[in-house]
Amino acid sequence: MLFGxxxxxxxxxxQALPGxxxxxxxPEAAGAHTVLGTPLFDHPEGMAVADFxxxxxxxxxxxxxxxxxxxxxxxxxxxxxFTENPTYEEVCSGLTGHTETVRVVYDPDVLSYEALLKTFWxxxxxxQGYRQGNDVGTQYRSAVFTHTPEQAxxxxxxxxxxxxxxxxxGYGTVTTEIEPAAAHPFYPxxxxxxxxxxxxxxxxxxxxxxxxxxxxxxxxxxxPDAS
Length: 227
Known about the structure:
Layout lengths: L26 H4 L17 E7 L2 H9 L5 E9 L8 H5 L6 E8 L6 H10 L8 E2 L2 E2 L5 E5 L2 H20 L8 E4 L6 E2 L39
Parallel strand pairs: 6-7
Antiparallel strand pairs: 1-3, 1-6, 2-3, 2-8, 4-5
């Protein structure tokens, strides 16, 4: 939280920490996914990439690697802020502007982006602003970083559809940001954060994310133009 305030405030570019040129995790040091056994950085031709921020990335990453089919690999990192190659401590200070993000590499012939969006929306409360449950800070905000115009359109349509579901259930306005990934580089997090809640690392570890219990429609098309 910026400057120790009890209410999180988003850092500006001129306030943000400078970071560093070298990444905190390199492909050479990353090894294989501790659950899926696949490389964290390299993937076969034809795979697609999706980036989601939905609170603490430990539990969020697990939501995606547990999908029954189609996920090649997952890794966690920092995205959406200003600091180059930040550390976890820097992100938690609120002085980088980054979210805690999960990168999902998936086979679009097996798993649709809309299905990933459904997992994203149903795994957290996207109306909480700069927090998820007891986790408070700008790094815990909800965001989708899109890699194609098709992803952007699907994300926007699903946000509108889920907003209708949430509104009917008495929830407030969805605060989820939808931004192009090209404008927000993804910086992989330190190795000990990768697959943090796997059985090989911390099977009983802390997970602070939780959904609303409300189902998100899948494959919702944008409303037709009434003009």
